[in-house]
């Protein structure tokens, strides 16, 4: 067996308790989960999950949203075409009915 060392970290008590409950439900304790995290980090040679910063430039979101809106408008206009309001209502009812099955 390799040499064992003690690893300590300070965390919020509520967070530790909530996470411990999750691991207990999975059949393990917190130290086992931490060891699994370390082993997986070694295997992936990094964090075992995506660690990315959110976009800071809200104009990117706005531009993406406007492009998406334009595409949706184009698609909707090609679908509706010469449908009457009653045709649209019937399509919605049929879609809801098939979705609820």
Structural key phrases:
101 residues, mainly alpha, 4 helices, 65% helix
Write the layout of secondary structure elements.
Blueprint (H helix, E strand, L loop, with lengths): L12 H13 L4 H15 L13 H23 L4 H15 L2
How is this structure best described in words?
The chain is elongated and about 75 Å long. The model has no long low-confidence stretch (mean pLDDT 83). It is mainly α. The protein contains four helices and no strands.
Query: What gyration radius follows from the Cα positions, in whole Å?
Result: 26 Å
For the termini, the CA-CA separation is: 57 Å
Q: Report the portion of residues in β strands.
A: under 5%
Strand and helix order: HHHH
The beta-strand count equals 0
**DSSP helix count?**
4
* Sheet having the most strands: none
Instruction: Please tell me what the overall shape is.
Output: elongated
Please state the oligomeric state of the protein chains shown: single chain
User: Quick check: average pLDDT?
Assistant: 83
- Approximate helicity band: 55-70%
**Stretches with pLDDT under 50, minimum 5 residues:** none
Structural class: mainly alpha
């Amino acid at each position: 067996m390799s040499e064992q060392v003690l690893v300590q970290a300070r965390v919020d008590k509520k967070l530790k308790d909530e996470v411990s409950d999750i691991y207990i439900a999975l059949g393990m304790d917190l130290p086992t989960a931490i060891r699994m995290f370390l082993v997986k980090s070694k295997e992936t040679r990094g964090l075992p999950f995506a660690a990315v910063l959110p976009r800071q430039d809200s104009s990117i979101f706005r531009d993406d949203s406007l492009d998406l809106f334009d595409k949706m408008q184009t698609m909707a206009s090609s679908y509706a075409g010469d449908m009457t309001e009653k045709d649209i209502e019937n399509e919605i009812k049929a879609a809801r009915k098939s979705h609820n099955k």
